[in-house]
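Supplementary Note 3. Input sequence used for the single-chain structure prediction.
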Amino acid sequence: MTEPFMLHQVDELVTRSHSDGITDLTAAALIEQHGRFLEPNMTRAWSLPTGPVLPGETVGDGLHRILAKGFGYSDAEITGFLGTIDTDDSATRTFVFAISTGQPDGICRDGQSPHRWIDNITISDLVPGINPVLRTYYATDHD
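The predicted structure, written as C-alpha cells, is reproduced below.
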C-alpha cells in the first residue's frame, strides 16, 4: 500500500512541476522480477511501462490505469516513489514508481505487447535518465 507521506510528496512535486513550466505529466513503472526489469517496446522504442496522466487523475491513479489497460497488470501495487525524469525539451515530467504485482508475467499472457526482461546495466544504457531512479530503487527494501 502506498504510504500517505509518499502521496503527499508526489502531490507537491506535481504542483511544483506546473510551476516549473511542465505541460505534460506521465507515470512510469519500474517492475523488477528476479533481478530483471520489464521493458516493453512502445512505439518502436524500448522504455519503462509508461503513459500519460489524464486531466483530473492523480499520478498514482494514472499509473494504475496505464498498467491495467495497457499492460495487463490489474493487481499492481505502488511500493515506492523513485523520482522524476524530464524530457530533453523539458515539457514532460515522468514520475517513476516501484511496482509490485502478483502476476509473474502478466504482459506475456496475451502476447500482444512486445517486451523483454533486462538487467540493470542494459536498462541503464537504454532508458535516458534512469540511473538516479535505479540508485533510489536499490537503496530501498523491496522484499
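The beta strands are 24-33, 36-42, 45-46, 50-52, 77-86, 92-100, 115-118. Confidence is low (pLDDT under 50) at residues 1-5.
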